């Protein structure tokens, strides 16, 4: 199975840290944030990783190269202008192929990855959901008996980690578009499964959360 890391965003919420450094390269616990993802993917047995880039793309590509330093093969999907989540995935489909793949938002930290067997043949997506953080108390989706829905009660937060089938975005008109509306459409036809991860997860969206993650990782390494 291949994996894709979404890393093409402008990092506006992380300013001023991202004024001169793209968000994937911001250091946390002694290494760039995106390297934590690469190491976890390698440890999970994944060999091919697609990374989409746009803002300060050359910096990211130069820093990570072809992936050999991480015992991986990195394939770059360059976007002259950010294509959002759905458009970015669609643009990378020639690199991803026809099989299901693991998708990770580049601006999260989590020490868990779902097993590829979690995506059943009749589903188009399998989502990892986490407890609602303080900055997102209402959550995103409901999880009942392994199925993800738009129910309004007992919601959890989408972790930004999922297994997807390429067909979810393949037929959309080319260009910039979000992934969330397509996931919601699939939920309405009961084509999305999910699981609840209760371990440590961080949406590294602000300098304050980056600092908090740094403190956490330093503590657990001592």
UniProtKB/TrEMBL annotation:
Keywords from the UniProt entry: Nucleotidyltransferase, Transferase
Keyword Transferase carried by entry: yes
Keyword Nucleotidyltransferase in record: yes
Any Pfam family matching the protein: NTP_transferase
Record InterPro entries: GlmU-like, MurU, NTP_transferase_dom, Nucleotide-diphossugar_trans
Gene Ontology MF, one: nucleotidyltransferase activity
Domain of life: Bacteria
Residue ranges constituting the Nucleotidyl transferase domain according to the UniProt record: 2-112
Residues in the signal sequence: none
PANTHER family on file: N-ACETYLMURAMATE ALPHA-1-PHOSPHATE URIDYLYLTRANSFERASE, NUCLEOTIDYL TRANSFERASE
Protein's name according to its UniProt entry: Mannose-1-phosphate guanylyltransferase
Organism taxonomic ancestry: Bacteria, Pseudomonadati, Pseudomonadota, Gammaproteobacteria, Oceanospirillales
């Amino acid at each position: 199975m291949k994996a894709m890391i979404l890393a093409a965003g402008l990092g506006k919420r992380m300013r001023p840290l991202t004024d001169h450094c793209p968000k994937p390269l911001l250091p946390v616990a002694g290494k760039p944030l995106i390297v934590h993802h690469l190491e976890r993917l390698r440890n999970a047995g994944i060999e091919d990783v697609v990374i989409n880039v746009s803002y300060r793309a050359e910096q990211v590509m130069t820093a990570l190269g072809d992936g050999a330093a991480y015992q991986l093969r990195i394939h770059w999907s360059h976007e002259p202008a950010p294509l959002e989540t759905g458009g970015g995935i669609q643009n990378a489909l020639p690199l991803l192929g026809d099989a299901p793949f693991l998708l990770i938002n580049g601006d999260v930290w989590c020490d868990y990855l779902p097993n590829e067997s979690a995506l059943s043949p009749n589903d188009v997506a399998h989502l990892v959901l986490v407890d609602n953080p303080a900055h997102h108390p209402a959550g995103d989706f409901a999880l009942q008996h392994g199925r993800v829905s738009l129910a309004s009660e007992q919601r959890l937060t989408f972790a930004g980690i999922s297994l997807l089938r390429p067909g979810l975005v393949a037929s959309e008109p080319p260009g910039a578009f979000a992934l969330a509306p397509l996931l919601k459409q699939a939920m309405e036809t009961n084509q999305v499964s999910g699981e609840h991860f209760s371990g440590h997860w961080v949406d590294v969206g602000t300098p304050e959360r980056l600092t908090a993650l740094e403190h956490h990782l330093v503590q657990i390494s001592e």
